[in-house]
Amino acid sequence: MGMFETMLQNTEVVVHPRTSNFTGPISLDHVYEFMGGITASIRVTTGKDPDGYFNDARNRYNPYVQELKEAIWTETRTNLFNPKFIKEMMKEGETAAENFAESFRDTYGWNVMKPQAIDKEIWEGYYDIYVKDKDNIGTLEFFKDVNPYALQEMTAVMLETVRKGYWTPSDQVIQDIVDLHAKLVKDHEAGCSGFVCDNTKLKEMIENKLSSEMKESYNDQIDKVRTATENAEEEGMVLEKEELTLDTMKELIEENRGALVSILMTILIISGFLVFGIYKRRNE
Fold this sequence. Notes:
The chain is mostly helical. It has helices at residues 3-8, 29-46, 68-80, 83-90, 94-113, 120-131, 139-146, 148-163, 171-188, 200-207, 212-234, 246-255, 257-282; strands at residues 13-18, 51-56, 64-67.
């Protein structure tokens, strides 16, 4: 067994520092990539799912430790489920729409890295607010007007979450999301991200739930963009996107074992100092 796997054997807790008021566990992809990546590595290596905590030092006069799921729910309720926050964000236009899509991708990322961190109620809330507009905020009109491709991405992420079994809503909910996604592709062409165009199994799932007419339109739009992209790639205009699979992830871990060990040691040392400091402050 290698040194990295040996270090992970008795790891029960993963701690991540947090100092920013602007980003959190579902608004910055680096959080699930690093904290979630180490968590997934421990689970794959040992079969145990470690607990996750944030050393929250946003208020240097009152630092504290917050559990991962609590941090995710706090950000979700404060931002993504909050009509006042959503309305203010909508004033920022196209960029705000992409920020919402980023949060959906990050939520899915946590589902993959640590499934227990994301409750089904989060996806249900996303559906109610961004697909059904239950609060009458005008979310659908906002995305269609300023950035329909962001909502294409969001609905594709929701459907991939369903396809992977992380969320099991009713057939009607799935159909609502499929219909909205296909209509966005039909009306605005396909904004081909990895979720929207480059996932063959997801595309098949969507096709199987569409009428013949909508299925034809959906496929035409996807093929149109993919053909244009392939032509551009042949001319050397587009860099090839590397797909990250479990095998490539293992290869990356093997290739960067030394760096990962150093990073893990640094995180453990810093976390130890922060926890000691908090403990000392509370007992002074």
